[in-house]
Amino acid sequence: MNMLFAETLRRLRMERKLSQQELADKMYVTRSTVARWETGSRLPDAAMISRLSRCLGVDVNTLLNAAAESDEAPNVIMVDDRQIVLSGGLPILEEVLPGAAITGFTRPSEAVEYARSHRVALAFLDIELGKTSGLDLCRTLLEINPRTNVVFLTAYVEYSFGAWGTGASGFMLKPITAQGVREQLKNLRYPFWAGGAGE
User: Fold this and answer.
1) Cis peptide before 175, with omega less than 30 degrees from 0?
2) Phi-psi region of 14 (alpha: psi -120 to 50; beta: other; left: phi over 0)
3) What per-residue confidence (pLDDT) applies to 199?
4) HEC states along 28-61?
5) Which residues of the chain have pLDDT under 70?
6) How far is 53 from 97, CA to CA, in rounded Å?
7) Over the stretch 78-116, which tens digit does the pLDDT of each residue have?
8) What's the start-to-end Cα distance of the chain, in Å?
9) d(Cα 123, Cα 115) in Å, to the nearest integer?
């Protein structure tokens, strides 16, 4: 639940003397959608946040920053069937995302099991995972949580063409670097804050 965004939205709406229904009418959504945003049970996507900023007459960054703050550490996973790649990549993710809970997996099935019990904010996936395709793993993770950001990792640039049809946010050539991760964070479909990312 994102209570900072919920409280910010409610405060801005009340300052403008709008009811939930009046804001919903301006936004072309239902009143229950606004109510869910204000209880923190749902978070609007970037396009809706932009529309909210116009309807409320507030700088979009006010709402984006509130949405980016989370009550709990975001879960970030890295999946690669080679242990050496995880050993090198996980410390880089921890450096760039010090506020995130970062977990690595060599088996796609374990990553799926983890995603079913943890809300994954960002997944770095190797495209070739032994007998499993990272593209298929991406689709499975997005079925579990459509708001998971996925960034593909590979040593082969030609794989990028197949990757774009999966709903992924980005694509990185190996080896993973701190600067490369920071660049990917700028392009996430569903931004989140985990400390240090904006440095």
Assistant:
1) yes
2) alpha
3) 37
4) CCCHHHHHHHHHCCCCCCHHHHHHHHHHHCCCHH
5) 1-2, 68-72, 157-165, 193-199
6) 27
7) 999 999 999 999 999 999 998 888 999 999 999 999 999
8) 26
9) 10
Residue in 186, 144, 149, 153 with CA at minimum distance from that of residue 169:
149
Per residue in 10-23, is it b (16+ CB within 10 Å) or e — as a string? bebbeeeebebeeb
- Strand, helix or coil for residue 121: strand
Q: Return the structure tokens found at 168.
A: 């992924």
pLDDT number for residue 165? 65
Domains of the chain: 3-68 (1.10.260.40), 75-185 (3.40.50.2300)
Amino acid at 104: G
DSSP state of 16: T
Q: Determine the Cα–Cα distance for residues 139 and 166; give it in Å rounded to an integer.
A: 6
The alpha-helical segments, DSSP class H, found in 69-167 are 83-96, 108-117, 134-144, 160-163
Encode pLDDT of 164-180 as tens digits. 667 788 889 889 999 99
